[in-house]
Design goal:
Distance between the termini: 32 Å
Shape: globular
CATH class of the largest domain: Alpha Beta
Radius of gyration: 21 Å
Helix content: 25-40%
Largest sheet: 7 strands, mixed
Length: 419
């Protein structure tokens, strides 16, 4: 396996190549192959950017047709047929069935672009500068997104001071007995708290990089009530948890809330093509023309694959299959927890976005290595990297899921035997 070019010329910042030391070539569905022909089940899925697996035929076929037709690929924010078809499909298949009415902003192509746009708009709407963000949050790698992220190592990148962020406890932090929602409500209403009213509260319903911490429906409902009570914009960062990852299209659906702003990216294009959108409650859409921009906000190939993705959500059989797979994954993980109590502390996450909180970082490291050797790609999560992150494609077959769980089971068993 020739990796000389990477070690000789690629920056030291590379991460996943070190974690998975092989050279990949092809991929289909839940499976990815390396140069030697070895196949792996992919529970990494582009860090949540490939929820629908690799090269889904219903998504790739229209992309191939579009490319072969000499159609426009980059259009800034000009009007194109591909963009119109995406908007219409997204409204009909995703927004209307959920009784959601949003304006759609196309910022730059990545998740952090969406979060930066959302934060800027909230500040413009309210005239306030500070933003309330949570412990263990992660919102991206540009300065505004870094500022509202939780990990010290992340926030310190770039050596630039990041002000105007109020850090508050997430649901269940530091423990389940602490009512963080009531605390937030109190400090926002108490003139003696020393905490100014923020422009927005930004949150992930499941903190993927923060350790797969999942907020409860009751807590999310309380945060929405607090935002409305105190005239604060509620921003849901659904970049990794959205686009079907939890079993519903949006990760907040189970809580029956309607955020003021929603940020989507990663699996929105369903193909690995970069695309992000910001969903804005219409009365908050006070942007002036051209006030926010981004050269690659008109990625038409991504519009085409995202349109195909939307059509999947109009198929009741597809939707039912995703929900069924989510239940099966959770059942598999419950069995692992019962079987390996000395390795696994608790299950985290929700639906098809799950995590296994382990007793130590070393357990996760050894399980990761053994799983890779046996054909399963998984990664770690959390500030202490002690959570096994479980992200199968939401289209995974029952047989593939069972095979992956068997590999994980064997890796955990090897850990027990080693101890």
């Amino acid at each position: 396996m020739n990796t000389d070019a990477f070690s000789a010329y690629e920056s030291n910042v590379r991460r996943y190549g070190r974690s998975f030391p092989t050279v990949f070539t092809k991929a289909l569905g839940a499976t990815i192959w390396d140069e030697a022909g070895k196949n792996y089940l992919d529970f990494l899925v582009g860090s949540g950017a490939l929820n629908y697996g690799h090269n889904h035929p219903n998504i790739v076929a229209p992309a191939i047709e579009y490319l072969a037709g000499g159609n426009i690929l980059l259009s800034l924010d000009m009007y194109t047929v591909a963009k119109r078809e995406f908007i219409e499909a997204f409204v009909e298949a995703v927004l209307k069935p959920r009784d959601l009415a949003y304006k759609i902003q196309f910022p730059g192509p990545t998740g952090t672009n969406a979060n930066e746009a959302a934060l800027a708009l909230a500040r413009k709407v309210t005239g306030r500068s500070s933003v309330m963000a949570f412990t263990n949050a992660f919102h991206g790698m540009s300065l505004g997104s870094l500022a509202v992220s939780g990990a010290a190592s992340t926030r310190e990148l770039g050596g630039v001071a990041r002000h105007d962020v109020i850090r508050v406890p997430y649901d269940g932090y530091p423990n389940q007995s602490f009512d963080s929602a009531s605390y937030i409500d109190h400090v926002l209403g108490d003139p003696g708290s020393g905490i100014e009213k923020p422009a927005a509260i930004i949150l992930e319903t499941i903190q993927a990089e923060g350790g797969m911490n999942a907020a409860s429906a009751a807590w999310l409902e309380a945060i929405q009530r607090i935002c409305r009570k105190h005239d604060v914009v509620l921003i849901i960062d659904d970049i990794q948890a959205g686009a079907g990852r939890t079993g519903d299209f949006f990760s907040f659906e189970f809580a029956k809330i309607k955020p003021d702003i929603v940020c989507l990216s990663k699996s929105l294009s369903a193909s690995g093509n970069p695309l992000s959108i910001v969903l804005i409650r219409p009365e908050l859409d006070i942007w002036n023309p051209g006030e926010h921009s981004g050269t690659f906000r008109g990625n038409n190939l991504a519009f085409v694959t995202a349109t195909a993705m939307c059509k999947l959500w109009s198929d009741r059989v597809f939707v039912a299959a995703v929900a069924k797979t989510a239940v099966k994954l959770q059942e598999h993980l419950d069995r692992l927890i019962k079987k390996f109590p000395n390795c696994i502390e608790q299950k985290r996450g929700r639906g098809l976005m799950a995590g296994l909180k382990c007793r130590s970082q070393s357990v996760v490291g050894r399980v990761h290595d053994v799983a890779f050797e046996n054909g399963l790609l998984i990664e770690s999560s959390g500030p202490n990297r002690d959570v096994i992150k479980i992200l199968p494609p939401i289209t995974i077959t029952d047989g593939e899921l069972e095979r992956a769980i068997t590999i994980l089971d064997n890796a955990l068993q090897e850990q027990v035997n080693g101890d």
